[in-house]
Amino acid sequence: MAKGLRRNRNVKIVATLGPSSSTEEMVSRLFEEGVDVFRLNLSHGLHDEIKKRHEIIRKVENKFRRPICILADLQGPKLRCGDFKDKQAELVTGQTFVFDKERALGNSKRVHLPEFEVFKSLKKDSKVLVNDGKIKLVVKEVSENFVSTEVLVGGIISDKKGINVPDQLLPLSALSKKDLSDLEFVCNLGIEWLGLSFVQRAKDIKEAKKIVRGRAAILSKIEKPSAVDAFDEILEETDAVMIARGDLGVELPIETLPPIQKRLVRQCRDSGKPVIVATQMMESMINSPVPTRAEVSDVAQAIYEGADAVMLSAESAVGNYPIEAVRTMNSIATEVEKEKTYRQLIESSRTPLKGDVSDAITVAAREVAETTNVKVICCFTETGTTASLTSRERPKVPIIALTPKITIARRLTLNWGLHCIVTEELERFKMAVVNAAKAARMYGFANNDDKIIVIAGVPFNVSGTTNILRVAPADEKKIFEGEST
User: Fold this and answer.
1) Tens digit of pLDDT for each residue in 77-118?
2) Are residues 375 and 311 in the same domain?
3) Which residues contact 170 (CB under 8 A, 6 or more apart)?
4) Does residue 155 share a domain with residue 113?
5) SS3 state at 52
6) Which of 280, 278, 283 is nearest to 321 (CA)?
7) pTM of the predicted structure, to 2 decimals
8) For the stretch 452-464, what's the b/e string if a residue is b when 16 or more beta carbons lie within 10 angstroms of its beta carbon?
9) What sign results for the dihedral spanned by CA atoms 299, 303, 307, 312?
10) Do residues 211 and 308 both lie within one domain?
C-alpha cells in the first residue's frame, strides 16, 4: 500500500502552495507527509501559476488514487495607503496625519488613500491601524476630501501599507473586482472550497453564493471584529469557517484571541460545519527546521479543542522547510490524539443533536461503536450531509465516507476524521454493505473477523434520507451468507 493512503490521525492538515512548493515532486512529498487539503492563495500568483498548481494537485491525486481537496482563498478587498515621495515617512506620536483624495506622493504629514470613499464613513474617535497595527491613529475629523487623525503610536509608514479599521463596520463588499475575476477563474478550474475574505456579516456570504452558483462550498474567513460579533448569523449561512488569527490579532486585543478561538471552534463543532485554525501556527519554521515549543503547544491546543483542520501558510508556501513543517504538524497531531486527555476533552465538549432521523442515526452509530468492538463506521453519502454529521460526533473509531461523486469526496476531505472513497452508484443496501466491508479491509481499518457499522439512506441517491444502520461483518462472504447482527 502506498504511503499516505491512510492517515493515523483525525485532524486534517491544510498547506498553502507557493514558490517553495510548486513542483509535482514537492506536492507529492507534502501529500505523503500528511497534507489533506492544498490551499491556493489568490493574493499571490498569476492565473497561469494558479492553474499549473491546480493541475499538479490533480496529477498527484491520480497518482495516489485518493481524493485531494483544493481550497482557493480569495484576497478580499485590501485597504492600503498610497505611495510616499521617499518611499516612506516617519510618524511621531502626537502629531496630526491626514489621509486624503490628493494623488500627490505622500510625506510625514499626509498620504493619498485610494479607497477614500470607504474612509468617508469613519466616525470621530474611530481607531485606524497601519502596517499590521504597528502604527495606531485615531480619527479627529472627517470631510469630503480628507480624514484627519492623531498619531497615538508612531513609526515608519511606507508605500502601500495595509490599513485596518477595527471598531467599525465598513461599507465595503467582501468581493473586489479582482476577487470576482479570481472567483470565476478557480470555479471554472474546479475547486472544492472557496475562501471568502473580509467577511463582516451574513449578507457577504449570501452575495458570494449567488455568484458561485454551487460550483464550490463557501469557507468564511473570520478576520474582522464585526465577523466575531455577527458569528451566529455567519455560521448559519456559511459552509465552513477559517479562524484567521493574523488579522484578528491586529484588530482585537491579542489577549482576546484564545477565548474567541475556543468559542468559535465549539460553535462550528456544534453545527457540524468544518473549522480551520490558521495563521502563524509554525511561523518560525519558515527559516528553521524545528518549531518553537510555544508553536507546538499552539497546534496542540487547536487539536484538543476539536478543530477539523490546522493550517500552514508561509511555512509551506515560501518557507525553507515545507516538508519538515508538515511532518512536524503531523507528528504533533498523531501524538495528541493518542493521549487520554484528548478523548476526555472531545467527549466532554460534545453537545447533543436536536434534529431529524439522520441526526439520530449518526449519534446511534457513534454510541454503538463506542460500546461494542466495531472497528469502523462506514457512511454512504450523496451530498456529504451524512458524513459531516458522523464527523461532528467525533467517534473513537475511524470513519469511512463513501460517495459516488468525486466532488463530494474531495470536499469532505476537510472534515475531521473522514477517510473519503469514491464508489459506484448503488441501488441496493446489501451492495453498500459489501462495498463498505471491502473498503474497510483494503485500507486497513478492519480484518475479516471484525465488525463494521454501515449507515446509509434508502432509497439511494436521494439527499437527506439517512435512515438505516447495520452492524455487519467485514468479510463480504459472511454478508452474502446472511451473517450479521
Assistant:
1) 888 999 999 999 999 999 999 999 999 999 999 999 988 888
2) no
3) 118, 121, 200
4) yes
5) helix
6) 283
7) 0.93
8) bbbbbbeebeeee
9) positive
10) yes
Q: Which three cell numbers stand for residue 51?
A: 492553474
Task: Please indicate, yes or no, whether residues 317 and 379 belong to a single structural domain of this protein.
Answer: no
The tens digit of pLDDT for each residue in 349-387 reads: 988 776 788 889 999 999 999 999 999 999 999 999 999
Residue 484 identity:
S
Q: What is the rounded CA–CA span in Å between residue 380 and residue 383?
A: 10
Assess if residue 244 is contained within a domain: yes
Taking the C-alpha atoms of residue 425 and residue 481, their distance in angstroms, rounded to an integer, is: 23
How many domains does the structure of the chain reveal?
Answer: 3
CATH of the domain at 97: 2.40.33.10
17, 157: one domain = no
Cell 470565476 belongs to which residue? 184
The whole domain housing 372 covers: 357-480
DSSP labels for 284-314? GGGT-SS--HHHHHHHHHHHHHT-SEEEESH
Q: Spell out, as residue ranges, where the chain has pLDDT lower than 50.
A: 1-4, 484-485
pLDDT the model gives residue 1: 34
Mapped onto helix, strand or coil, the DSSP state of residue 468 is strand
pLDDT at position 2 is 43
Give the catalytic positions in this structure: 39, 80, 221, 279
Cell numbers for 28, please give them: 507529492
Does one domain contain both 25 and 155? no
